[in-house]
Amino acid sequence: MAGTSIALGIDVGGSGIKGAPVDLDRGDFAAERIRIETPAVSSPLAVCEVIAEIVERFDGAHGHAPIGVTIPGVVTHGVVRSAANIDPEWIGFDAERHLHDVLEHPVVVVNDADAAGIGEMYYGAARGQEGLVILTTLGTGIGTALIHDGVLIPNSELGHLEIDGYDAETRASHGAREAEDLSWEKWGARLQQYYSHLEALLWPDLFVVGGGVSKKADRFLPLLSLRTPIVPARLENRAGIIGAAYLATQSA
Hints:
Helices cover 35% and strands 25% of the residues. The chain has helices at residues 44-62, 95-103, 112-123, 169-172, 174-180, 184-202, 217-220, 239-251, and strands at residues 6-12, 16-23, 28-29, 34-37, 67-71, 75-76, 79-80, 107-111, 132-138, 142-148, 151-153, 162-163, 166-167, 206-210, 230-232. Strand 1 (6-12) and strand 2 form a beta hairpin.
């Protein structure tokens, strides 16, 4: 529609690849989201074929819109440097260049937690927040996004801090809670230790908690005692798609 800023956001996950056009004036989907299963062998070429299929479904309505793609791994200058829950062939793959050539759209590739942080900063729980915001995504692991006075500090990877000799996400992620069948109270004690550690290191002004479990924030956030305000993500699982779409327009 004339006068509306539209970009496509695509979120690559270990189990599903999801995409939607985003109305950046409203900060919400402009059409229903499409989800396709992640290929069993989630190599770069296999996943990029699925991304192309999603883009093709929306091209008729939204033309040559810029595209933002999230990857569950470190991304620098469009090149994937690590691979969490996707094939290790992604490491060293220039995803941004490949997708630009295949899709013939402007494309930006970004870490998934960073995209979620941008979505929450512009349209969600961190909107208007000054100082340092730390978004954490509690899922299979822990993803983090650092945003200081509106500027993203990319690829923070603070889910991998070592606490008491453990990689933090192996004990405090929602995946760990499910794998060990922890009560909310026992998991809350681990979250308390994790967020207290982040506080002591970085002195943030706000924590935003994303990931699917954020829908149940009332079950575990009240268990935490922190000096930093901590709130659930407002965009829930839409944050990554919305943030990726926003970043695509900034770099197009």
